[in-house]
């Protein structure tokens, strides 16, 4: 798709819904593929990663503020039922870690886990995307350029973690215009979306929305820096990752 055509489609899609993408302090929040630019206060890392304390975030009620914060800043449509769109959500142990155990500790069996894209080092979604709409940034974040997505859903088939959602419905019809974050783009029907580790916030020097909402129960930082807080937490706590045997090398860890 050439630039002229892509720009036209972007403009037509946004204006049809009466929504505009805003430029914030030199940072365009639209398609991170080519437009996110670091501001002066940008947070940087060689490999961003996250540790979630599931003991503190172990119920749906505890996870709900994270979901609300994330979905609000990213204009995630609120669609009930099977066609829902999610960037972060709550799930039980077996669904989260694929490790059935009939004799598990009851507390752990009943615990809920905050799930999101793992920003895998060896991300199958990146390998299968035919248009490079999903791509790996040098800092380890698996980002998306929504304008490049053709809705083939190969990435959804490739992701073993169910971290991606497809907009079967027109998402803009399921957004509250009064609560819209005009600094982040809305998507169109037929586009896939997922957690982006808040690349647009990192570019402005802010932590991810879920980290802020977690009141210290999620630590986010540079996995490649032994002196970082995230590495300290990983040294001091036993953690697990989702489906490590698949070899995708998830960047999200769970204290259990
Ligand atoms: Fe891709 Fe899924 Fe890994 Fe996220 S969790 S990087 S969507 S394979």
Quick structural gist:
The chain has 256 residues and is α+β, with helices and mostly antiparallel strands. The protein is built from 9 helices and 12 strands.
Q: N-to-C SSE series? A: HEEEHEHHEHEEHEEHHEHEE
- So, CATH architecture? 2-Layer Sandwich
Query: How would you sum up the major sheet?
Result: 4 strands, mixed
The tally of domains stands at 1
- CATH class categorisation: Alpha Beta
Number of strands: 12
Strand content: 15-25%
Query: Which regions are unreliable across 5 or more consecutive residues at pLDDT < 50?
Result: 1-34
Number of continuous helical runs: 9
Distance between the termini: 46 Å
Overall, the morphology is: globular
The average pLDDT is: 88
User: Based on helices, strands and strand pairing, what is the structural class?
Assistant: alpha+beta
Q: List the strand order in the largest sheet.
A: 10-3-12-11
The helix fraction, in percent, is: 25-40%
What is the CATH topology?
Answer: Alpha-Beta Plaits
Radius of gyration, in angstroms, nearest whole number: 18 Å
